Amino acid sequence: MDDISERQRLEYEAAAFRRLRDHLRARTDVQNIDLMNLAGFCRNCLSNWYRDAAAADGREISKDEAREIVYGMPYEVWRETYQTEAAPESQARFGTSRPHD
User: Fold this and answer.
1) pLDDT digits (tens, 9 = 90+) for 5-56
2) Closest Cα partner for 75 from 67, 85, 66?
3) What are the DSSP E strand ranges found in the chain?
4) How many CA atoms are closer than 13 Å to the CA of 99, on its beta-carbon side?
5) Left, alpha or beta for 12 (phi > 0: left; psi -120 to 50: alpha)?
6) Which domains occur in the chain, in start order?
7) For a tag site, which of 26, 34, 43, 50 has the least CB within 10 Å?
8) What is the pLDDT of residues 57-100, one digit of tens each?
């Protein structure tokens, strides 16, 4: 892929981000704890990475704004509508596998 421009690379990466974001919005059945246990990141991580990218460009975005970009709705609305109680097994696994930054 040495023959693509920097602009094309950024456009492809942005398209991949949007597709991941849209996929996660559609898969409301998948809980964040399950994503964390399986992949080591969740929707909240993605929103934090978005905030980090904006901050690196000199733009401050609040945690709530970034989460709404990822979730497609205010975070509290998503939680009330879609979040379920995590199974004890998921909670135990998260306790041993969660990233510590």
Assistant:
1) 999 999 999 999 999 999 999 999 999 999 999 999 999 999 999 999 999 9
2) 67
3) none
4) 10
5) alpha
6) 6-95 (1.10.3340.10)
7) 26
8) 999 999 999 999 999 999 999 999 999 999 999 999 998 876 66
